[in-house]
Amino acid sequence: xxxxxxxxxxxxxxxxxxxxxxxxxxxxxxxxxxxxxxxxxxxxxxxxxxxxxxxxxxxxxxxxxxxxxxxxxxxxxxxxxxxxxxxxxxxxxxxxxxxxxxxxxxxxxxxxxxxxxxxxxxxxxxxxxxxxxxxxxxxxxxxxxxxxxxxx
Length: 152
Hints:
- The protein is mostly helical.
- The chain is built from eight helices and no strands.
- Helix 3 crosses helix 8 (131-151) and helix 6 (96-112) packs antiparallel against helix 8 (131-151).
- The longest helix is centred in the C-terminal third of the chain and has 21 residues, at 131-151.
- The N and C termini lie far apart (70 Å).
């Protein structure tokens, strides 16, 4: 009986390898990408790409284990949830009030250390922000919010 259950589980896992979620990949920055509409210093852009864009843009760098289901499904769900909260690739489509709020959240997230998520950092240690990097991103977000407020 246990052997039949084990075979059934293996069969389900084998079949699941052929059911893959769509990839979150694009070529280059979209015209609505935050870097195409606002000034993003090169150091801040590198930090955003390294530590944020995998979950908060339309271009994810997939690790090898994303090819294994159900891990790929879980990652896809996580990416979709991240993009619902903030999508740097679509940032220019946000109304001014929402964009301002998202920049405020970026500032809080990096300064309070709840972004990048710990679960992401377990396998992407290079995405961990140093205090200087967090300060640079927070200061950029703060300055951008200030410029937007003065433009309105």
